[in-house]
Amino acid sequence: MGFHYLLNVSKKQMELIRKHLLRRLHDKNLEKKDGLSIVYDLTYMCNQGCPGCCVSAIAYKKGKEITMEEHGSNTNEVYKILSKIKEFVDSRPELDFFLDFGGGELSLRPDYKDIIKTAASMFGSESIGMNTNGTLISIEDLLELDPYISYIGISIDGLEEYHNRWRKSVEGGNSFQRTMNLIKKMLEYPSLANKLDITTVPTKKNLHEIKELMHYLHSIGIKNYSVHRAMQVGRFWYKDDLVPSNEDYFKLFLEIIETGEELGMNVHLHHSIESIYTALLLGVNTYAGDNIGNPDRKASLAIDPWGRIFFDPWCTVEPWDKLAKSSLLNEDTTFEQILREHGGVQDLIDSYCRKDIRCKGCPVACSGGNRIASAANHIRSNFGLSAREVTKEHLLTAMDSVDPACPLYKNSSEYINYNDSEFQKVVDKYHTFFNIPQ
Ligand SMILES: C[S@@+](CC[C@H](N)C(=O)[O-])C[C@H]1O[C@@H](n2cnc3c(N)ncnc32)[C@H](O)[C@@H]1O
Ligand code: SF4
């Protein structure tokens, strides 16, 4: 049934898989029991027009000033949203909280540094992060922000040629070189270097060069490297042919952890996929059912530039915006009320992230299985609909689908039962090697 890619691994590789997944699990468990992380997109304007952008960011017109209206919210409105988040976080002192600013390209906002500083004064700098394409920000900007921030994610999507093809910028020129120049300057300042994480979105077209990219990044001194998963949202909704398969992901996982070990880099693949491997191959329950968001210890919600809350950072644009409810900018509406709205964030979580629902009720206690990726794959594979044609009903009925990155996924209408005798050969191999009681 095609599990050769899981079976043809050496003992050394299996040892590495165990070591990596247990370290990641341990790191997660070190965090406080319950966590909430929010990705707050400050704008959907951008200076790049990546063909797979998950938020379908709009490339601004060179030379034309971007208005606050185009960004979504003005400075005061952003502060209003932050204070509503604060009110919620303060009411849950047990929550380990993290606020990750993203976009679009947040540095296109003239007030982005003030927003980050204000957020740090409200939540503490250890709870603030940001994501950028690194083409517009200067080293001086980052040095100014250094005391107010603990995470800086910068995107590099491949080697120079691929990256420049994927990430053409409005300003023209060589985006790869521009971002790498900033990265190299950051590495001269240990405090910035420690906060830096280079991230890559894998696609069918760059999988083969990720190892070489890691070698290059290591050669200039990069320590932290993360590979996202290609989320079929935004402009990627139409890129069916570019989404890596479950086999691609496993091979990539092996390759990045082997390369990371060889080079001494701290690497990981997106947690929704690593959680699947941890549950299936290590037999560890990664499902923590009664958390506030997705059933993972560190739940993630998103806020869009208009203050609307979404139940997953990957579902803020069409067609997922059809599930959006009220905005935090509405007078008298609290964060808590929006979460609890009928048919809102908490209802979606309660209805679709439950273990007996997600991935068609797969018996494995697994916190992987991203609902957005599963539903998008189901809708695209079965109906081929454009994002505009998709209705709320399509989305809701597709949310219990099997995650296409899971080894148990076969195709959009078939999946393999965990107890299937062929798959049990995989389980036996790993569990026997890892000495896990059957
Ligand atoms: C939307 S971007 C915003 C920040 C900044 N403009 C950038 O590109 O880094 C946030 C992160 O999402 C990643 N991303 C974009 N499209 C994606 C997709 N379809 N699937 C997964 N990640 C994606 C980017 O590479 C980046 O790491
Ligand atoms: S991925 Fe980032 S840089 Fe690329 S278009 Fe989207 S927001 Fe802009």
Verbal overview:
This protein is of the alpha/beta class. The chain has a domain at 9-281: Aldolase class I (TIM Barrel). 41% of the residues lie in helices and 12% in strands. A 9-stranded mixed beta sheet has the order 9-8-7-6-5-4-1-10-11. Strands 2-3 form a two-stranded parallel sheet. A two-stranded antiparallel ribbon has the order 12-13. Helix 2 (11-30) crosses helix 11 (246-263), helix 2 crosses helix 12 and helix 10 (210-220) packs parallel to helix 11. The model is unreliable at 289-297 (pLDDT under 50). S-adenosylmethionine (SAM) binds next to strand 5 and strand 6. The site of iron/sulfur cluster (SF4) has 12 residues, from loops.
Distance separating the two termini: 22 Å
Unreliably modeled segments: 289-297
Q: What's the average pLDDT?
A: 92
Q: Total number of β-strand segments?
A: 13
Proportion of residues in extended strands? 5-15%
Bound compounds, each kind once, are:
S-adenosylmethionine, iron/sulfur cluster
* Structural shape: globular
Radius of gyration, taken over Cα atoms and rounded to an integer in Å: 21 Å
